[in-house]
Design goal:
It contains 17 helices and ten strands. By secondary structure, the chain is an alpha/beta fold. The strands form two sheets. Strands 1, 4, 5, 6, 7, 8, 9 and 10 form an eight-stranded mixed sheet that branches. Bound molecules: 2-acetamido-2-deoxy-beta-D-glucopyranose (7 copies).
Length: 523
């Protein structure tokens, strides 16, 4: 018995030594909160005024996100420091700069780094500053024939119009979620908090007579006070004592984190990002097992605390006891806070795995609560002993992570539009056409697998839609897709793209998940 245990122990220790020596970081998927910005009035549903770009990132916010980028570099890219935490993320050919691949030292290009941001000023600028910290200016590259005069390495930050963004800002567009919030606002828990906070709110109201100090509007009260107090911008506010300010802040934190509980959000706010994350990790593991170099290995969403908390809620971390120590469940992520899903492999280049089974890949969630903090781990509900031994406590095998997260993912815009009851977004209008097309195809299928009554012909779909400009364009696309269905398929297109890039493109031909219908066709 003792001998048995000892043997097992030796085995684990030996195994662990083996794992640690061969472990490699394959990909990271990072989600950041922007830095400090000027005052932002928000609606009770987390919506905000529709000014182009919204309030701007303050100089202090630029520095916060830059510093978060420097820590990120220290943890993942600086070859001197990343070994200490076994978190070196090798780029193409081991390089650690961003630029045109196949230049000395350049490891990240458009082929393996993908930064997306919400279309708001504060997030776009935060993304740029974060990556300035990650790929800093290099005076040795400051030539007048290449690079910027400071050796700056500029990284593209992709974005899409806010009205269509359900990857980073689904939280502003989901009526199912807004209805749940309304129910919660009129329920007993919220009413009790209204009563409990009445003296505090009255006190603030007396000193700020023009302010709406109702509980639903409390975020705006706190934000106006906090931004002026901390950064001296915006309209002057009274100089509240520290103890009163702390109460004001605690109430705002309670309100904002409560709105992001999983029993209110479900996967409505984070489900699309979860689908995106699982998609890229699956692709990275596949590419890496096949020894490919060019696959997306540094993925980043420059977003908002609601983006981060939406993902956390979609993973049900708030109802899972081992994660209760995670401070973001009770107080908001700090400005420029970072959360990173890490995909680790054991000797990834040497193993060939059948598709769908990933015994050598592991996933861990880590976070940094503001640029001055050190990174910590958040245990995931799919954690296992095997993953703890291989990587660290709280980690999951990739298979377990994919099963857990994929079940909560909203895999395409159709799924999100249906769950959120949204028929306004272009993606949702398009989803309706795709749904109608699928129904028509099923009805017309010779095996009659739809079981429905009679085939719907394309012209019937055509006359049944309200023809907006978008509708017209989509209609043409749907008609073309319908008539050419069965012809040249997506697989051929991928192969052609692969040939064009020299065959080693891994996942480059994948479209953004939210732009595809259920069968992987771009819409
Ligand atoms: C890498 O880290 C070392 C040790 O902290 C530091 O001296 C060096 O400047 C860093 N290099 C870069 C490019 O960040
Ligand atoms: C990357 O670095 C490792 C270890 O330093 C080395 O063995 C390997 O050849 C390098 N790969 C490339 C493509 O430079
Ligand atoms: C680069 O700058 C130096 C010094 O300013 C100048 O002498 C040189 O001609 C410049 N080279 C080019 C290619 O412009
Ligand atoms: C606000 O009050 C504190 C003491 O409570 C004081 O130290 C500080 O200087 C005041 N700030 C301003 C801007 O008046
Ligand atoms: C939602 O969860 C919170 C705690 O996370 C709990 O206090 C509340 O009662 C739950 N609401 C419902 C409707 O289950
Ligand atoms: C999302 O897609 C993945 C991969 O195709 C699948 O395993 C998962 O079941 C899907 N999730 C849902 C909720 O349909
Ligand atoms: C969905 O939205 C429509 C209006 O766009 C509304 O009439 C309908 O009641 C909503 N359904 C649900 C379940 O909320």
């Amino acid at each position: 018995m003792f001998i048995g245990n000892l043997a097992a122990l030796i085995c684990i220790v030996a195994f662990q030594a083996f794992l640690h020596s061969d472990a490699a970081l394959v990909a990271v998927y990072s989600v950041q909160r922007h830095g400090a910005r000027n005052v932002l009035p928000k609606g009770i549903f987390l919506t905000e005024d529709d000014l182009i770009g919204g309030p701007t990132l303050l100089p202090q916010g630029q520095l916060q996100t830059y510093n978060a980028g420097v820590s990120f570099r220290t943890r993942y890219l600086n070859t001197t420091t990343c070994v200490a935490t076994s978190t070196c993320l090798p780029g193409f050919g081991n390089g650690t700069k961003y630029g045109v691949l196949n230049q000395p030292g350049v490891g990240f290009g458009n082929f393996n780094l993908y930064v997306r941001s919400s279309s708001l000023d504060r997030a776009i600028l935060s993304g740029q500053c974060f990556f300035n910290g990650i790929f800093p200016p290099d005076p040795t590259d400051s030539t007048n024939t290449s690079y910027m005069p400071t050796g700056e390495q500029v990284v593209p930050v992709y974005t899409r119009i806010d009205a269509e963004d359900i990857l980073i800002r689904a939280y502003t567009k989901c009526s199912t979620y807004q209805n749940r919030l309304l129910t919660w606002f009129s329920g007993p828990e919220f009413s009790a908090k209204v009563a409990e906070s009445e003296p505090l709110r009255r006190q603030v109201q007396m000193q700020m007579p023009g302010m709406d100090t109702t509980l639903v509007n409390w975020w705006n009260v706190y934000d106006a006070i906090n931004v002026y107090r901390t950064y001296n911008v915006g309209n002057p506010v009274p100089n509240f004592t520290q103890s009163l300010f702390n109460q004001i802040q605690d109430l705002a934190y309670w309100l904002e984190t409560s709105k992001m509980r999983s029993n209110l959000t479900g996967n409505l706010l984070g489900g699309v990002a979860l689908a995106d994350l699982t998609n890229y990790f699956r692709l990275a593991a596949t590419a890496s097992s096949n020894g490919l170099q060019a696959f997306y290995r540094l993925l980043s969403l420059s977003g908002h605390y609601n983006t981060q908390l939406g993902l956390i809620a979609a993973l049900d971390l708030d109802t899972w006891t081992p994660a209760q120590g995670f401070s973001w469940l009770r107080s908001l992520p700090k400005l420029a806070a970072v959360m990173v899903f890490e995909l680790h492999a054991i000797d990834a280049a040497a193993v060939t795995l059948p598709e769908g089974s990933w015994p050598s890949f592991f996933v861990r969630l880590v976070y940094q609560d503001g640029p001055a903090a050190s990174y910590g781990t958040v245990p995931l509900p799919c954690m296992s002993t095997a993953a703890a031994v291989a990587l660290s406590p709280g980690a999951c095998t990739l298979s377990d992570f994919l099963s857990y997260a994929s079940a909560r993912a909203l895999n395409d815009s159709q799924a999100w539009c249906a769950a959120c009851n949204n028929s306004v977004l272009n993606a949702c209008v398009a989803a309706k056409y795709v749904g109608a097309l699928a129904a028509a195809e099923a009805a017309a299928a010779p095996d009659g697998s739809s079981g429905g009554g009679g085939g719907t012909e394309p012209w019937k779909i055509a006359v049944s839609v309200v023809v907006t400009f978008v509708g017209t364009v989509l209609l043409a696309a749907v008609a073309a897709a319908f008539w050419f269905h069965g012809g040249r398929g997506r697989g051929d297109a991928d192969a052609a793209a692969a040939r064009q890039f020299g065959g080693g493109v891994g996942n480059l031909a994948t479209q953004l998940v939210v732009c595809e219908d259920g069968r992987g066709r771009a819409i």
